[in-house]
């Protein structure tokens, strides 16, 4: 029996966390994602599932609480928006360096600096290329609906524990704030401490006589050992690139031109495809669902079929760099975007396509 | 030759007056000769051993000289970013409330870069133990001025001595956290003599036992030396500490729970 709810994106991800059996959430208020913490506090998850929810003194403290909880083997998440995510970068690189699983939600707003509280997609570089210091990546999931905000909690944690890596849900102010119908899943039991020890034999659960002590660290003062560890991380990222690429295609079969867009932009582009088709233009859409790993192989294939790609982003053009790398100069790749918290209209996108390619 | 006593004649049960705790690993300490960290490590591990809590103790050591504490302590440990240990410990304890959780922090870590994490963990009354080793200097990075460097004290970034007017006064953060309702037990100890070390161990044990009471945070400052950073011999450093650090950071309990 389906259970349907009308929810904001931010509420959906919070409800999903409770139902997925997440053990801990640590956050700090910032617009446009404060509803995550507010919803959790209102729901009394300590009573519903025993989940720990804490408002930290800063984003820095919150991400380090995530580190501590994840290092203890528990399912831990946090959320923030762009300026707060910048503050979390220290913790994220330590989490990547210590190979800890966790889920981080970024409900992106326009920048740089304090910028605006309106939606944007200008944190692509920060999320996909690293953000913090050192050679690391994290898996980045880009939801385009409230339903995906809900679904990506479980998807994200599955990937995080499978690869012992931080996973980011890269949303934006529009998807965080808008209300849609959501099918919610069943309540799952949180893992017992015994199950946690079984799933995460590396975690700091307390050293018993049966094992060596567990150490969570990202420090290695021996250059050779550190380089070996760097190779280990890179091998893991390569495996992720081979196995975990996710994307969706709309009307690309006969397309002569395609839009590439994720999140809110991809919602706009769905309409733009219809408008363009009504004009007789053979246009399709490729929507990356994972931004790292990026659907480069598929784009390379498509570059042998289509005449041009329009990258549609609510930024000055960030993802376009990955598209260009993917298509190996086979076809022209152009950018269309709005910034400052402005969402492009479907008509503007079609106009941009016509202007740049026709 | 008959008088030649060999080791196995001495190491007999009845002659045993001291034994290194099993909870310290065999790895030689990386600290400078004369440094107080080795003694504090030993005391903490003795306390855990006496509580029979190896299997339910998790330590957090952030950036600083003691960042490698996990090499020496035979318990589960997490290494933290600079200043963030109380945040890690908050989560570890809340997710495993039955475990003993402690942080082991230096003065730059706890009273400068980690001030917010320290004060807020104390203010929330997290049910953890904070061990604060204060030697008035950044030892690991080579002797820079710390938030607890004394007025007039020379360091590599206060080469003419700490000038309070422009560099600020040393911070008595232990007195500061004692004012917060969330702290249950706050004390300042030292380990420069056997007597002081015995008192410090009692304080540490109390701080760990307090976690069972769930009444708030226990905070143990250990005023210690840094003979390398202070550019002194170990003996000179201990004497300088007695003459200069103790008058500014007086030893003893600062906040004691009512009996």
Task: Characterise the protein shown here.
The complex is a heterodimer of chains A (358) and B (259). Helices cover 43% and strands 20% of the residues of chain A. Chain A is globular. The mean pLDDT of chain A is 98. Chain A is an alpha/beta fold. Chain A contains 14 helices and 15 strands. Chain A folds into 2 domains: 3-195, Thiamin diphosphate (ThDP)-binding fold, Pyr/PP domains (Rossmann fold), CATH 3.40.50; 247-357, Rossmann fold (3-Layer(aba) Sandwich), CATH 3.40.50. Chain B has 259 residues and is an alpha/beta fold. Chain B has one domain: 3-Layer(aba) Sandwich (Rossmann fold), CATH 3.40.50. Chain B has 11 helices and 9 strands. In chain B, the strands form 2 sheets. Chain B has a 7-stranded mixed beta sheet, with helices on both faces. In chain B, a hairpin with a 5-residue loop joins strand 5 (137-138) and strand 6. Chain B is globular, with a radius of gyration of 19 Å. The relative contact order of chain B is 0.14. Classes of the chains: A alpha/beta (358), B alpha/beta (259). Chain A binds chain B through residues 23-24, 26, 52, 54, 56-58, 60-62, 64-69, 71-72, 74, 76, 90-91, 94, 98, 193, 204-209, 213-219, and chain B through 54-58, 60, 67-68, 70, 73-81, 84, 87-92, 94-96, 99, 116-117, 120.
